[in-house]
Design brief:
Shape: elongated
Strand content: under 5%
Distance between the termini: 45 Å
Family: Belongs to the bHLH protein family.
Number of helices: 4
Radius of gyration: 21 Å
CATH architecture: Irregular
GO molecular function: protein dimerization activity
Helix content: over 70%
Protein name: Transcription factor ILI5
Oligomer: single chain
Order of helices and strands: HHHH
Keywords: Growth regulation, Transcription, Transcription regulation
InterPro entries: bHLH_dom, HLH_DNA-bd_sf, PRE
CATH class: Few Secondary Structures
Structural class: mainly alpha
Largest sheet: none
Length: 85
């Protein structure tokens, strides 16, 4: 493996910092010290899992809503158009 293809510790720290800034509630944490890479990665995994659950819940709710609508109703047409975009 060439030295150019290896990632440096500085690059890892920069990537962890960027990842941490994408997590919710970062404004409150910015004044505090940086979290460890392990903690940031765990928080990121938990956040992604929660987003998956939220998407699944919203998908179920949308499916229930669509099933309860008359397929020829104006509301159903609006939803179909929104889902196509």
């Amino acid at each position: 493996m060439s030295s150019r293809s290896r990632i440096t510790e500085e690059e890892i720290n920069e990537l962890i910092s960027k990842l941490q800034s994408l997590l919710p509630d970062q404004a409150r944490r910015r004044g505090s010290s940086r979290a460890s890479a392990t903690k940031v990665l765990k928080e990121t995994c938990n956040y992604i899992k929660s987003l998956h659950r939220e998407v699944d819940d919203l998908s179920d709710r949308l499916s229930d809503l669509m099933a309860s609508m008359d397929s020829d109703s104006p509301q159903a047409e609006i939803l179909r158009n929104l889902l196509r975009s």
